[in-house]
Each structure stands twice: as structure tokens, then as C-alpha cells.
Write a structure and sequence with these properties.
This protein is α/β, with parallel strands linked by helices. The chain has 18 helices and 27 strands. The longest helix has 15 residues. The structure holds 1-O-phosphono-alpha-D-glucopyranose and zinc ion. 1-O-phosphono-alpha-D-glucopyranose binds next to loops.
Length: 548
């Protein structure tokens, strides 16, 4: 028996979704009415019914972190109570973010709810998150998330069905009140999409020929996807995928694929018996890190190499329409776009800014320095997609990752690049530093710092070439005459104090000086970054917590 109830509630402060939905500590999300208020705000804004009164269809899934299973049941009962007709759910309430984006598009649904805090740790005292994706499969734009936030400030009630849990462990159709819950294999459709883009027979031959790979799924959502695609379908050796079972606390790992948090993978790839290729992905499967034997590939370089070689994969054989990168990402991809004679775009941080470019057919491949790469096959970044594209390129070029990178730098020059993160700074101090920096910009051009002359300094603003919307204050940029650049911005996804991100870049045209250590090559830029912003004076920090 089911029974529809309307529960009286009151606004809860701070339910403001950021660039990737609403993220909070798990106990906060588990607090009284917290999840329910936000989910009701979502349905109030997007509507669970069509104009003709018929119910809408949504996709639901998450990265399997603690509270994922409970939250899924609540969201389903609320979807039913709000009048949705059908919800497509990944078995076990599991869906990687890119797979959710694909299912939203494939089934022409009205959008989807993804439960994830991406690369943030999971567990009873770690992070949880909820975000809404639009019918195009991409994250809700600011206007929509703003409306959801406003709704949370005036909410007085929410609707929920009183019912037993739906059995999400079994694939098939279940009834929840008037609503159909369709439990699907979380991997199958996504794996077919990958097969349509990449040369699976060539990848199979690559593995048959003895090519060795290590894939670290970091006890997060890509485990089942990677095992099915790499080991079962492509014939990679059993055990290629490690940490392949999604766990509620990610096995205590910080599921962020970068050299700091995927250290075991880095050690193996730099060690004496390194496999040919290494990769890792994050909590919800949208990020990736790739590593060659003895060589780390920075995400900015990865984007550039993928753009330069994408035509080698069947799904991109006809070439790219354009390449888009977030502003803090290095200009390496721009050089490729120029060489290919295709359009290039520089957007603010956050995947949602790529959506319009992809929808409008202006760009085919996009990427961010934060280990995010993707294409127009979905409207999210996609970790396994990037890994498979690399594999496809390796299968065709029959060269090592190191040789491919070195050839790339020889052709295009090298954009040395690094990001320094200063985490958990007191918010007021971080804000004061950014304010002082913004106030100093007008006086910077012409100034000599660490032997480099400042050419221009601004606070990045972006006008969307498709809808004309303007996003201001997206990060302070300081550009030097020699092509070096410093970018400062505060993270929009952290859950503790403020995180200052400092992005450092320096261009070497070659042929000399292309194989320095990145931190060494960037030393003067790093010193300039500290001097110009007074990082130590403002924040009390002299060294970053995380360097990527
Ligand atoms: C971070 C990354 C950004 C990415 C976002 C979501 O945001 O820097 O590139 O789009 O996570 O994965 P930030 O914390 O810097 O606001
Ligand atoms: Zn993620």
C-alpha cells in the first residue's frame, strides 16, 4: 500500500548549489528535511509533470557513496509523489555521471538526478551531493540552479509517498504508486556508446599483442564499467582494473585521480616493472588521469594530444568542429586548434559552460586542467572515454605514451603547467586576498616580476557565444610578455573553508628545453605568483597542500 503525504517543512540555510550541484557533509544531507527540501526544490523548478498533466521521465543514479542507496529511495518516493511517470535507475542506484548523461539523452528523458560529490571522499562523515542534469544530459545552468536555491529559501512543504523500498537490486520494471521505476544495467548502454566511438577490434588486438595496462578505479563508480569494457570486452588481462568494487567510503581513498591521491598508480608507472599505460578515474567517473610508463601526462597536455589525434578513432574520423578548454587550462590545446584550422574556445571553469558549445555544434572536444576531458557524445566530462581514446591512439600509432608526448612537444612547443592548491583557508582571509589582488590589477601591466614583464592583468569574464549570457569574475589572470601566465581563483566545490587555486603556465617553443621537470621550469612563475598576491601574508601559507 502506498499513501501520499505532504510534509510541512521550513527553509534550511545554505542550500545553494555550486557549479556541480549541492555538496555538503553527509550528516548535513542526512539531517531532518535536508535532502527532501532540496529535492522538492528541484521538482518545483523543473516540474515533475508536463503541461498536459502527464508525468515526466527522469534518470536517477549515483556514485555509490555512503547514503547513495537511502537517498535514492527518498528521491524515488518524492518523484512519485510529485507526479513523475517513470524513473530510469541504474541497478543498485549506481550510475557514473557520464553514463547518467548518456541515459538522459538516449531515452529522451526530461533530465536526471545524480547523487555524487564527485572526487570528494565519501562516508558517514565525508561528502554527499545531489545535482540535476537537463534533458540535453548536461548540468543545470546557473539560472536553473539559482531558481532551485531561491525555492529552498521559501519552501513550506514537500510531497512524498509512504511506501516500501523499491528493489533496486534487480533489473526490470517496478511499480511505485502511479510511477514506474525501471531498473537498468548501469554499464550496458554506456559500453555500447563507447563501442560506437572507438575501434574495439583494434583495441582487442592491442591487448592480445601483450600490451599491459593498469586501471585504478579508486573503489569508486568506474569499477564495473572498467572491468566490463577493458577486461571482458577488450580482453585486457584479468586484474588490469584495481580497486574495482565501488565502496560506500571508497575504501578510505580520496577518489581524485591525480598524482597526489592516485600515488600507488604513479609509483607503479614510475617503477621498474611499469605497464605500458596507466589510468585512474574519480568518484563518479567523469575525471581521468593518464600516465605512460615513466611519464605523467598533465591534463592540459592530454587534451591537446587527444585533440591532435582524435581523428584516429572512428567516432572522430571526420575531424573536430572545435576545441574548448576552461580558462585556467593551458593553451596547449589552442596550438593544436590553430594548426588544425578549427575553432577554439576559452570558457570559465566548470563543465556546464561547454554544454552550449557542444549543443550548437561549435566544439567536439572539451577539457579542463582538473582532469576532465570529454566530447559531444554526452554532456559531462567522461573519464573512461578519455582513457579509451588514448588507447585507440596508442593502438593506431603503435608508439609509447612518452614518444607521443615528446613528438607533440616537438611539433607544438610545450606549455609547462601546474596547479597549486591551498586548501581549507579561512574564508574571510581568502576573500581578502582575492579582493586585494583584484584591486591591484590596474597597476600591474608593465611591471617587472622575477625577470618577466606583465603584459595584461584582468578578472576573466565570458560571453557565451551561443546565448550571449555573461559570466563575470571567473578568475584573476596575469599574463606576461614571454607567454607565461598566472591564474588565481577560489574553488566553487570545496566543503571546508576556502580553497585557493593558483594555476601556473610557461611556454617553451623548443627545440631546446622541452624535457625539464615542470616545477623547475615554473620556478620563477611560482615565485611571482606568491609575490603578486601576497599569499603568505594573507593566508599564512607558504606551500600548497596539493600540486598537480
Ligand atoms: C573543480 C575544478 C573544475 C571542475 C569542478 C567539477 O572546481 O577545478 O575544473 O569543473 O571541480 O569537477 P573548483 O573546485 O575549482 O571550483
Ligand atoms: Zn567527478
Amino acid at each position: 500500500m502506498t499513501h501520499l503525504t505532504t510534509v510541512a517543512t521550513a527553509p534550511i540555510a545554505g542550500q545553494k548549489p555550486g557549479t556541480s550541484g549541492l555538496r555538503k557533509k553527509t550528516p548535513v544531507f542526512m539531517g531532518r528535511h535536508y535532502l527532501e527540501n532540496f529535492v522538492q526544490a528541484i521538482f518545483d523548478v523543473v516540474g515533475a509533470r508536463n503541461e498536459d498533466g502527464g508525468g515526466k521521465t527522469f534518470v536517477l543514479g549515483g556514485d555509490g557513496r555512503y547514503f547513495n542507496d537511502r537517498a535514492a529511495q527518498v528521491i524515488l518516493r518524492m518523484a512519485a509523489a510529485n507526479g513523475a511517470a517513470r524513473v530510469i535507475v541504474g541497478q543498485g542506484a549506481i550510475l557514473s555521471t557520464p553514463a547518467a548523461s548518456h541515459l538522459i539523452r538516449l531515452n529522451r528523458t526530461d533530465g536526471g538526478i545524480i547523487m555524487s560529490a564527485s572526487h570528494n571522499p565519501g562516508g558517514p562523515n565525508e561528502d554527499f551531493g545531489v545535482k540535476f542534469n537537463m534533458p540535453n544530459g548536461g548540468p543545470a545552468p546557473e539560472g536553473v540552479t539559482e531558481a532551485m536555491y531561491r525555492r529552498t529559501t521559501t519552501i513550506t512543504e514537500y510531497h512524498i509517498l509512504e511506501a516500501q523500498d523499491v528493489d533496486l537490486g534487480h533489473i526490470g520494471r517496478h511499480q511505485l504508486g502511479q510511477m514506474v521505476v525501471e531498473v537498468v544495467d548501469p554499464v550496458a548502454d554506456y559500453a555500447d556508446l563507447m563501442k560506437s566511438l572507438f575501434d574495439f577490434p583494434a583495441l582487442r588486438s592491442l591487448f592480445d599483442s601483450g600490451f599491459r595496462m593498469r586501471m585504478d578505479s579508486m573503489c569508486a563508480v568506474t569499477g564495473p564499467y572498467a572491468v566490463k569494457i577493458l577486461e571482458t570486452r577488450l580482453g585486457a588481462a584479468k586484474g588490469t582494473v584495481i580497486n574495482g568494487t565501488p565502496l560506500p567510503d571508497f575504501g578510505g581513498m580520496h577518489p581524485d585521480p591525480n598524482p597526489t591521491w592516485a600515488k600507488a598508480l604513479m609509483d607503479e608507472m614510475m617503477g621498474p616493472d611499469a605497464p605500458d599505460f596507466g589510468a585512474a578515474s574519480d568518484g563518479d567517473g567523469d575525471r581521468n588521469m593518464v600516465v605512460g610508463r615513466g611519464i605523467y601526462v598533465s591534463p592540459s597536455d592530454s587534451l591537446a594530444v587527444l585533440a591532435a589525434n582524435a581523428h584516429l578513432a572512428p567516432g572522430y574520423a571526420r575531424g573536430l568542429k572545435g576545441v574548448a578548454r576552461s580558462m585556467p587550462t593551458s593553451a596547449a590545446a589552442d596550438r593544436v586548434a590553430d594548426a588544425l584550422g578549427i575553432a577554439k574556445y576559452e570558457t570559465p571553469t566548470g563543465w556546464k559552460f561547454f554544454g552550449n558549445l557542444l549543443d550548437a555544434g561549435k566544439a567536439t572536444i572539451c577539457g579542463e586542467e582538473s582532469f576532465g576531458t570529454g566530447s559531444d557524445h554526452v554532456r559531462e566530462k567522461d573519464g573512461l572515454w578519455a582513457i579509451l581514446l588514448w588507447l585507440n591512439i596508442l593502438a593506431v600509432r603503435k608508439q609509447s605514451v612518452a614518444d607521443i608526448l615528446k613528438e607533440h612537444w616537438a611539433n607544438f612547443g610545450r606549455n609547462y603547467y601546474s596547479r597549486h592548491d591551498f586548501e581549507a583557508i579561512e574564508t574571510a582571509r581568502a576573500d581578502a586576498m582575492m579582493a586585494a589582488l583584484r584591486g591591484s590589477l590596474a597597476g600591474l601591466p608593465g611591471r617587472l616580476v622575477e625577470g618577466m614583464t606583465v603584459n595584461a592583468a584582468d578578472d576573466f569574464a565570458y560571453t557565451d557565444p551561443v546565448d550571449g549570457s555573461v559570466s563575470k569574475a571567473q578568475g584573476v589572470r596575469i599574463m606576461f610578455a614571454d607567454g607565461s601566465r598566472i591564474v588565481y581563483r577560489l574553488s566553487g566545490t570545496g566543503t571546508e573553508g576556502a580553497t585557493l587555486r593558483v594555476y601556473l603556465e610557461r611556454y617553451a617553443a623548443g627545440p631546446e628545453g622541452l624535457d625539464l621537470d615542470a616545477q623547475e621550469a615554473l620556478a620563477p612563475v611560482i615565485r611571482a605568483a606568491h609575490a603578486l598576491a601576497g599569499i603568505n601574508t594573507h593566508t599564512g601559507r607558504t606551500v600548497p597542500n596539493v600540486v598537480t
